[in-house]
Amino acid sequence: MIPTHELTGMILAGGEGRRMGGRDKGLEPFAGLPLVGHVVKRLEGQVGELLINANRNADAYRFFADRVIADLVMDGAEGGFKGPLMGIYSGLRAAKTPWLLVAPCDSPALPDDLVARMIKGIGHHDIAVAFDGERLHPVVALLRTSLADDLAATLAEGERKIDRWYARHDWCRVDMSDCTDAFANLNTEEEKLRLETTLFNSSAKEAR
Ligand SMILES: Nc1nc2c(ncn2[C@@H]2O[C@H](COP(=O)(O)OP(=O)(O)OP(=O)(O)O)[C@@H](O)[C@H]2O)c(=O)[nH]1
User: Fold this and answer.
1) How much distance in Å is there from the Cα of 17 to the middle of ligand 1?
2) What residues have CB less than 8 Å from 91, skipping those under 6 apart?
3) What is the predicted ipTM?
4) Which pTM was predicted?
5) Is 137's C-beta closer than 6 angstroms to any atom of ligand 1?
6) How far is CA 1 from CA 25, 92, 125, 170, 207, in A?
């Protein structure tokens, strides 16, 4: 089992948010909190250091994390916004622990016991990826930070697909088919409104 002090948490919030009009999705107000705040609640206290990976508004994100990191520049040729695999790489390099747990900023309903499930599910593998019963969620993953050099080489080859990089390694799925709804993510204003209503309704039901 991976102890908390050997695990860094990182919330990916480095995207362009094009489908949200170019807004910084992690800072979008959602059910009373900036979106990223909901994901912070799922991870805090269950990881050692908590990082947020963001390519803008670092000052705003700093409030929510121990450290804010931007995407690394590869060979002086690339800046941010090159996709989430670049964010994962930046996290693998920034983490001071043997393990990194990654979660996206735009999934506010992730399970409260996400960290425990991922730790239990990884067994002796090097990468664990959440599986909702139908699809994999490559940005919900637990990884060995010693994979950073390999990922650097893979990025240098031009690879940007997360699942293709995982497939080169000893990886496993972590079954979360009992909580498919937890992986709802929001990309557009419409999805944001719909999910906000769903979440508010469900908490109202729970309160009764
Ligand atoms: N670090 C980093 N994270 C990214 C990048 N692109 C996407 N992400 C993150 O990956 C997760 C999924 O992102 P998407 O919804 O596919 O992309 P997005 O840029 O947020 O939104 P769109 O531009 O509408 O596709 C989110 O947590 C994003 O913040 C990137 O270039 N760098």
Assistant:
1) 7
2) 8, 10, 12, 51, 53, 69, 100, 102
3) 0.97
4) 0.94
5) no
6) 33, 20, 12, 17, 35
| Secondary element (H or E) of residue 116 | helix 114-122
Q: Tens of pLDDT along 90-147?
A: 999 999 999 999 999 999 999 999 999 999 999 999 999 999 999 999 999 999 999 9
138 close to ligand 1 (CB < 6 Angstrom)? no
Instruction: Name beta bridge partners: 8.
Output: 100
- According to CATH, what is the number of the domain 4-207? 3.90.550.10
**Does residue 139's CB lie within 6 angstroms of at least one atom of ligand 1?**
yes
208: tokens are 């009764």
**30-76: pLDDT as tens digits:** 999 999 999 999 999 999 999 999 999 999 999 999 999 999 987 65
